[in-house]
Amino acid sequence: xxxxxxxxxxxxxxxxxxxxxxxxxxxxxxxxxxxxxxxxxxxxxxxxxxxxxxxxxxxxxxxxxxxxxxxxxxxxxxxxxxxxxxxxxxxxxxxxxxxxxxxxxxxxxxxxxxxxxxxxxxxxxxxxxxxxxxxxxxxxxxxxxxxxxxxxxxxxxxxxxxxxxxxxxxxxxxxxxxxxxxxxxxxxxxxxxxxxxxxxxxxxxxxxxxxxxxxxxxxxxxxxxxxxxxx
Length: 231
Fold this sequence. Notes:
Layout: E1 22-31, E2 39-44, E3 66-68, H1 70-80, E4 84-88, H2 96-108, E5 112-116, H3 121-129, H4 133-140, E6 144-147, E7 168-171, H5 179-182, E8 190-194, E9 200-204, H6 208-217
Parallel strand pairs: 2-4, 4-5, 5-6
Antiparallel strand pairs: 1-2, 1-3, 6-7, 8-9
Helix pairs in contact: 1-2, 2-4
């Protein structure tokens, strides 16, 4: 089987968390590296696609993660005060039912929803046509959809937020007018967060060489800059 053909099969049903809980791998209250404007990012635990070269292989297993009720996640997102939420993973459509509730609650509050998926548009349509109401519900509550598996042989250096050129941006509504036209001139961002315990986390996209250099510089003493008008 081709390594990428699994994306045509359509989303799996994630049984471990159940339809009333999200298996949450990571929650970032505020970021400008995971979609347009300032957003809250929510990574889920579990992915059936498992793209070769994936940046988050630790999120493949359908075990672990924090099990959180959709209503609680909505509260966390709204409390962050950002423009909206970005759903990543892992694979959001493998937890479509509870994430559709999260997305609906966020949109009812006037915020936007961006959803990344490794499944193709054809795979999602096939799932909906087969009666997957949970997939249809998450699609209906998504303003900006990014579809397609990551392809390490098709690395994208021109568009923001995506990893490979086969991945598609799909606008589902009028929340982001002009976004598709602006993609070639929208820069990628990388954020490095060091918490009080010294733990380092990275989100966003960068080529491996640039990322290695950036991470190597974390904690390295930086040269002091002279202030204007002072000796």
